[in-house]
Amino acid sequence: MFGVWAPGEEVSKLTYFGLYALQHRGQESAGIAVSDGARIVVFKDMGLVAQVFEEPVLNTLRGHIAVGHCRYSTTGSSVWENAQPTFRSTDDGSLALGHNGNLINTPELASRLRDGELGATTDTEVLTALLGSGSGGVERAALDVLPLVRGAYSLVFMDERTLYAARDPQGIRPLVLGRLEHGWVVASETAALDIVGATMVREVEPGELLTIDEAGVRSTRFAEAQPKGCLFEYVYVARPDTSIAGRSVQATRVDVGRRLAREHPVEADLVIPTPESGTPAAIGYAEESGIPYGQGFVKNSYVGRTFIQPSQTIRQLGIRLKLNPLREAIAGKRLIVVDDSIVRGNTQRAIVRMLREAGAKEVHVRISSPPVSWPCFYGIDFATRAELIAGNLSVEEIRASLGADTLGYISLDELIAATRQPRDRLCRACFDGIYPIDVAEDARGKHLLEEARK
Description:
Layout: E1 2-5, H1 11-21, E2 29-35, E3 40-46, H2 49-52, H3 55-60, E4 65-71, E5 86-89, E6 94-103, H4 106-110, H5 123-133, H6 138-145, E7 151-158, E8 163-167, E9 176-180, E10 183-187, H7 190-195, E11 199-203, E12 208-213, E13 216-221, E14 229-230, H8 231-237, E15 243-244, E16 247-248, H9 249-263, E17 270-273, H10 279-289, E18 297-299, H11 312-322, E19 323-325, H12 327-330, E20 334-339, H13 346-357, E21 362-367, H14 395-402, E22 406-409, H15 412-419, E23 426-427, H16 429-432, H17 448-453
Helix pairs in contact: 5-6, 9-10, 9-15, 11-13
């Protein structure tokens, strides 16, 4: 997500570049909403940012406020109707909103709406409808509605004259505020601020609403902060050049690799990463172990992240399209392959097979996160334990399933230590099953609003 308030700037192009920097967070659809102070115009479509927006389209999106979004679906199917920003007419004008996260009381919130008020099947559409149905303006509606909302939500939204940003009381998904020479930026990651030349000001606090207009930035607390930042952001989601809580994600991942080498040493000839998300930890593993670091794969940069594609068939095809082994570098060698996580096991199984076919003598898999054993209900798309390989198999059974000679995961304690964050300020639910916000059974499932319509 990306939002900008900057009179005199080409806000649609700033938003385009911001979304480009955040493309790794969602690749299914993209959209930008712009206001010139009188009306909001929204353009969105299925596809990557560069596919959806060509320069002639951006040139038609004129104004001084913009909100942008690239979608990774966690509630609702991957269809045009569910693309963001969402749009809603209000008593005073209109509202456009982008959301990163996942709400866990969507059925309860939807029950507050009249039949026919929802045009899409996402939790974001429900939230937008509630914000748009209040009286007294968007800010007043936000202060009334947000205390009722449970789950993970970082929001960037706007009316015709004002940009807003809000973060859930647990601060599960990241959100940062940046300063331009003549305006303000809000984004999911600090890397997006860097790309558009904005200076990092601070993180949006959990339970905080920011209001940004010609008077500057105003902060309002709508809930008490109970910080539980997502640990999986450090492992996989965030860009390595992003900072979380003042610490570089790259530095954290390299440190995890060093700790992994101490926890799970093995004799080998070469340490290679599964590019790109396994690279920092592989560097750390090589530095700590003294085993040479090298490249074992050529990566096709034009293939998206295989984990966040919405269907299993596309994921499996994407792995083969994305990576091809460097036979001369790996033939006859004992390899340590470092990856960031094992969710379903598809990527690692294919990689071990490719390396053996290319002549690797041994393949030792090392993972820079603990086993992902529990579903996420807060914005990562593994909503059932059945789809998680570690939710059903032991480490030894996973090793056998992958076809690796050995398999080692970083411990949860060592991963947390590498973040330099207190344990009680992190959401670790996918690793330890301890959920910071209870999730009712009727609120679980990616397609619950679609099923309710049947």
